[in-house]
Amino acid sequence: MVQEGDAIRCLCGAVAKDVDAIGGIIRERVCCRQCGLLWRGTMPSDEEMAEWYRDQYWQQFGEEQRGEARENLCRHVMDMILVKHPGHGTLVDVGCGAGGLLMRGVGCGWRGIGFELSKAAVSHARSRGLEVHEQSWLPCPLADDSADAVTFLNVLDHLAKPFDALKEARRVLRPGGHIYIRVPNGPLHNQLSRLLSGCGLPHLTVMHLYGFGRRALSYHLTRLGFEAVDVRTSPPSQADAYGADGKGRSFLRHCAKRLDRTVYGMMHRIGMDRWAWGPSVEALARKPLVVVKER
């Protein structure tokens, strides 16, 4: 994002809306008028982010990473990739955590390569025989045109430089390779925060450094040179990573999760998941067979 005097510009070039305080707490959000991207008005430092993901992430989310909470998502993502690449290939998972998606890929005969900052997560993934680099995605040591699929499963909205991460994924992908992204639906969570703040429950929604929705994902993936961009509602995970907070909100989150699964199942059966309306959205896009210069 670029600051020009009193104006804030998105990378798409448009002027963003004013910073908005949500629920009377320090959760400022800025929204691009053109592409719909949301982001935090105040970003943590690189050092703060690296320390949190390296040392604290596993303490909070390790149990979910080791269990079956994401098994349905890993199966779903790998099935989508196999539709596009029926044979064997190389899968690169950015922010791979304990390696659930990589395990699914290896089980399908693929080579799996992960990138992860958390020391504990890397140790756990390597104990499962997985190939995981203990480092950030940027800069990536992989060669140009060396992967058939690159995935960001609940990762892109955590990154300080998400568009640089997408450019690196495009570099690493072979022509015809695919990128998969799953993120919370930023615009939906932003609106829910406004509604729930009046009830004292804004924390039931999810907003990390960035908030991507259908419009932002479609716009920026196309801008960065991907094609055949398909954005839709993502199926909910089997469990809630944010529910066990010990502050009386777990029950409400549990009820919302069950409702989400029920509604998604109904909408998916009639094709309405293509509207990308749900709490989480996913995008699948392809690197062109004939690569053109980035815009």
Classified in CATH, the superfamily is Vaccinia Virus protein VP39
Beta-strand content bin: 15-25%
Number of strands: 12
Query: How many structurally independent domains?
Result: 1
Strand order of the largest sheet: 7-6-5-8-9-12-11
Radius of gyration: 19 Å
**Count of helices?**
8
Task: Name its key features.
alpha/beta; 295 residues; 7-stranded mixed beta sheet; Rossmann fold; 12 strands
Give a structural overview.
Helices cover 36% and strands 21% of the residues. The longest helix is centred in the first third of the chain and has 21 residues, at 46-66. The strands form three sheets. Strands 7-6-5-8-9-12-11 form a seven-stranded mixed β-sheet, sandwiched between helices. A three-stranded antiparallel β-sheet has the order 3-4-10. Strands 1-2 form a two-stranded antiparallel sheet. The protein has 295 residues and is of the alpha/beta class. It has one domain (45-286): Vaccinia Virus protein VP39 (Rossmann fold). Helix 2 (71-84) crosses helix 3 (100-107). It is globular, with a radius of gyration of 19 Å. It has helices at 46-66, 71-84, 100-107, 119-127, 162-172, 186-197, 214-223, 250-269; strands at residues 2-4, 7-9, 29-31, 38-40, 90-94, 111-116, 131-134, 147-153, 173-184, 210-211, 227-233, 280-286. The model is unreliable at 21-27 (pLDDT under 50). The relative contact order is 0.14. The protein contains eight helices and twelve strands. Helix 4 (119-127) links the parallel strand 6 and strand 7 (131-134). The two termini are 17 Å apart.
